[in-house]
Amino acid sequence: MEKKLINFQEGWAGVFAKLNMYIVACKEAERLGYLPVPYWPSIWHTDDVDIWDIFFERIGHSKEDKQQPLEEINIVKLFAKREKDEQVNPAPQFAGVLREPIDRQECHQIIEANIVLQPWLREQIQNLYAQHFKSRRVLGVHLRGPGKDNVGHGGVDRLNQLLGVGSPPFAKYFELIDAKLNDYDCIFLGTDAGMVQKAMREQYGDKMLTVASDQYEFGEAHAKNCQAAGISFNTLGMEAIVDAYLLARCDFLVHGNSHLSNYVMCLDPNLDTQNVYEGLYDKASRFDLRLKSILEKEVKPAIQHSFIGKMRVHAGRLRRQLMGKL
């Protein structure tokens, strides 16, 4: 079978944004009759690292295939063409907001056939499951941090801007968790933020367990230069993958707006879930709110970073200095 290189492209997108794109790429490969060869160049490492080989096995191909003169497909452009595909899509986008997966069963089959964890990672996940999950009813919760310094992700910060529900929307999470908690022995928290761990621990005490570190307070660390911040991308990626594969083995999932949550829903297509933003997406797609988001997230930053915006900042600083001397 013909092989084609699927270039994940360098960029700040998180592990599960790219994995969801790869599910779509695998579906396209199946449709057109070729074998996808993933190549995931890293922006987080100084040397030439293929992220795929850190966490995943190669199925039906080898590392050496990447060196062959294969036709190359840009995964980001491919996903942009197929992101509204209503046949199979783990991460559909409507009105600029991530929605829940389309055809979880087929997405699951694609994951089973094409995305296989390295043995050491499978063993670690199984050991954690045996230690914390076995013989217990577990309520899974995936709750992202807000990020910091306008990292610009499309999750909790944007929905808070559109809907005013909080970033993160702790009150909505607590409401859903409290309504279900009596039916479960414990809560498993998947998160990327130390502040989320702290808030959940204050609310639920020892009933909450997590395997994530608190190495980044606000989350979204992948959207910055992890190395400059003293953060290991290998650790971040591993923790995100462990979170996802353990959340998929919970008995119920409470989640928000996230590529990781969408992947979990495809990893176990029969998992019962509840989205904290349920019933709010139609409001988020209103024209006036979309226009507000564009102005706040795109137009204003462009003006602030333009020559005129920079001159206004300098003029304001000079005025304050002069006023201070009078």
Helix and strand layout, with pairings?
Blueprint: E1 3-7, H1 15-32, E2 35-39, H2 51-55, E3 71-74, H3 75-82, E4 93-94, E5 97-98, H4 104-114, H5 119-132, E6 138-142, H6 156-163, H7 170-180, E7 186-190, H8 194-204, E8 208-209, H9 233-247, E9 252-255, H10 259-267, E10 273-275, H11 281-284, H12 287-304, H13 307-325
Parallel strand pairs: 1-2, 1-3, 6-7, 6-9, 7-8, 9-10
Antiparallel strand pairs: 4-5
Helix pairs in contact: 1-3, 1-4, 1-10, 5-9, 6-12, 9-10
Keywords:
five-stranded parallel beta sheet, single chain, 326 residues, alpha/beta
Structure in words:
There is one protein chain. This protein has 326 residues and is α/β, with parallel strands linked by helices. 46% of the residues lie in helices and 11% in strands. The protein is built from 13 helices and ten strands. It has helices at residues 15-32, 51-55, 75-82, 104-114, 119-132, 156-163, 170-180, 194-204, 233-247, 259-267, 281-284, 287-304, 307-325, and strands spanning 3-7, 35-39, 71-74, 93-94, 97-98, 138-142, 186-190, 208-209, 252-255, 273-275. It has a five-stranded parallel beta sheet with strand order 8-7-6-9-10, with helices on both faces. The N and C termini lie far apart (79 Å). Residues 150-154 have low confidence and may be disordered.
